[in-house]
Every structure is written in C-alpha cells, then in structure tokens.
Amino acid sequence: xxxxEGMDFLAIPTLTGTVATLEPLAPEHAGELAEAxxxxxxxxxxxxxxxxxxxxxxxxxxxxxxxxAGHIVPWTIRAGDGRAVGMTTxxxxxxxxxxxxxxxxxxxxxxxxxxxxTEVKLLQLTHAFETLDCIAVEFRTHWHNHRSRAAIAxxxxxxxxxxxxxxxxxxxxMRDVVVFSIINSEWPTVRxxxxxxxxxxxxx
Length: 204
Hints:
By secondary structure, this protein is an alpha+beta fold. The protein has a single domain, classed as Gcn5-related N-acetyltransferase (GNAT) (Aminopeptidase, 3-Layer(aba) Sandwich), CATH 3.40.630.30. 32% of the residues lie in helices and 30% in strands. It is globular.
C-alpha cells in the first residue's frame, strides 16, 4: 500500500505543546481572532494579506469552505494562556505526492518572540512528517517580507527559488514569491534543532 493511503491529509487534529496549541478553526473564534489581528494594526501590513477585524468572520467562513472542498486544513493558534492569537493552515495539499505547504499563518504581535511560532511549526511539521509521512513540506512568502523569510530559514528550511511576478497584489503591484522547503531526510535534524530552540527559550 502506498504510504499516503489510509492517511487523512484533511484531518484537523488538536495539536498541543507547551506554549502553543493548535485547535480546529471554528466560527466562534472570530471575536478573539479579530482582537488579535487588530493588535498594532497587524492587518494593515502591506506585504501580507490579513483580514481586517471586521472581516474575520468572513475569513473563517472562507477557510472552512476551503477545508470542506479539500483544499486546506485550518487551525486557530492559542497561546499558553489560552488566548486565540492567530491562524495557520496546511495548503497546496498533494496527498498522492505526500507533500503540502504550511502557510497563511499570522500571529498577534504580543505573542511574537515568545517561542510560540517555533512550537507551532514544530507541531505542524511533526504531524506532517510523522503522522502523514510527507516527503516534503513547503513554505512560501513575499519577497519583501524579510521577517518571514528569516523566520522560515531559521526553522531549517532551504530556499528552493523565487517565483517572479507570481501574484497580482491588492494594490496592483506584482508579488515575487520566495519558496522554501524541508524534505523528509532533513526532518530529524530540523526536529532536534527546533526542540532545542524551544527548550532554551522556554527555560529562559
């Protein structure tokens, strides 16, 4: 039996860590997530596509419809204190090729720099490589989103290339997309690195 058969790439399990929990995205999360995206006007960053606070309900509906159609797996990110502080998804799911992308992720400024993003990625990568038996996990970001590019590289992902003029942006400009990936042979080292980073940060 091919490794991907019998594995549910569209399941949305609750993934629990020390400083972060991923739970299935739900309509009742709209109020908390609207507050999170409003922090420091996060949704106004020009190089991201984040929902405005008043559009959060529609964004959740859109992501849940994407899941129902078999396109994405959406989670709400909760911090250790129980607050809903962001969203993340599996997308570009290709179960037959045992690969997917982690993306459409955002985290409230108050939860950034706490180790939460490191654990979110560790939880997602562990699920992808160890439960779904993926052979590759991809990350994509805007060329000008330098913080995101640095964070992806810090995970241990390698840059595959740049897709020039890949997206028409909301203001009419074109977006160059930087593509990174982690492959299954790299996962044990990446897992060890992320685990140690998280241990060091949470012990500080």
